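(Deposited chain)
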Amino acid sequence: MPCVDQIYDAFVLNRRGDLHAIDATPARWRGDVGSHRSMEPARPRRRRDDFHTGNATCQHDHWRRGHKQICKRIHRGGNAEQYNADKKYKEAVAVATEACADDTKGQTCYICTQALHWKTKEGLVRMCACRGTAGFAHVSCLAEQAKILVAEAEENNLDLKVLNESLNRWHTCGLCEQRHHGIVACALGWAVWKTYLGRPEADQIRILAINQLGNGLSVAGHHKDALPVREAELSMKKRLGVSYSSILIAQGNLASTYQNLGRLKESIRLRQEVYSGRLKVDGEEHYLTLTAANNYASTLGTLRRFKEVKSVLRKTIPVTRRVVGESHEVTLRMRDIYATALYFDPDATLEDLREAVTTLDDLAPTARRVLGGAHPLTVDIEGELRDARAALRARETPPESS
């Protein structure tokens, strides 16, 4: 369901060091607990230092002989964590460029104006809301542009608004101003993490980087890999004593990962805690409260608790439309969840089915216009519309007489 825990918003440094997130879409309601690709138990919980280890020989001999002798490449790369991040980044870029190859054929990067990157020889990607010949770029160029903008903002002591706008380039297209999605978001997640992981643990931009890494892994569907990142982020924030708002964001992101892994009891517990916390701290009209409501409804839908989904969203959708507007992604996601709950409910009336079709029919062109036809939310809405129409036709068609 369309949750909001990687929230498609921006890095924000004035009050919290996080990027909140938008959850899955109603398409995940199908199957046993939605269309989760994996229902296997999550990996054992690992500490932050555990997600960068080398091979078995390296692990066995690390303390005895040291990386300088046994792992020269890791030693040259800075340390095991940096080496791993660099490696994962290169792998993610390769996957992203291969997936975008057909769409980018014959195009050039809008940043460096070349088809192949001058240094890495990587191909182009897009995966934003740009259309036509706009928006094609190398992941390396996107990352370098973001890195330079952030460095300039820091070096010149520019205000928080400018710094936040610079940080946005790590996840949002500078042309269409929509977030990158899918495997491009994953590659940029590894890019921002490898860039800032060497900073002190309490550094706010480093905190943002691990948040963005978790978001990138999640939107690319790498939920098992996202889990230790999400857990490390929450553990780190509690250890550092960050704000309650920042803790709620980390809890919400972890809840999304639990949901995507089918760990629904853990997910709904955190969802309720986050939504309740947001209402108390920020009030019903705050953007983060709205996203928390969206995510709570998403998990309720996965649990087939459709009456509760409709109850939450009937109160929240009018507020969301007023606060962020009809075309905002959070509004689109909320209305998608609501419409899907209408026709998924086994007790749906004919009027419920008609309302679902009307709502989705209204959402589909807006999502295509705002997010582009390839965006996962647009694809989900158009798929739900087809299914809702089929359900309505089946209800309206009288059974054949024997």
